[in-house]
Design goal:
alpha+beta, 5 helices, disordered C terminus
């Protein structure tokens, strides 16, 4: 039997200390967002919970991370971040 890849970490959510299980890649992405937004994981989780996402805390965090990066993947987001500048087209 293969073990779960999910990583359990503690956060202080709206109702107090709790644990969340996410894939390592999602934890990495969440912590990258925390660095960019100057928040710790607990602060960001509380902000995410405050949006009222239906489906539970872990689901809300997954959707938030996806939405955060999808927003950055828009044309405007790419330009603002300096991404997607294909210099080969100009040649």
């Amino acid at each position: 039997m293969v073990g779960s890849r999910l990583v359990n970490r503690n956060v202080v959510a709206a109702r107090g200390r709790t644990s969340m299980r996410l894939e390592p890649e999602l934890w990495d992405a969440l912590l990258e967002i925390c660095l960019r937004e100057d928040l710790d994981a607990s602060e960001l989780v509380r902000e995410i919970e405050a949006t009222g996402h239906i489906g539970g805390r872990t689901s809300a965090v997954r959707v938030y991370v996806l939405t955060y990066y999808r927003t950055a993947a828009t044309e405007h987001g790419h330009l603002a971040a300096g991404h997607g500048l294909n210099t080969r087209r100009a040649a």
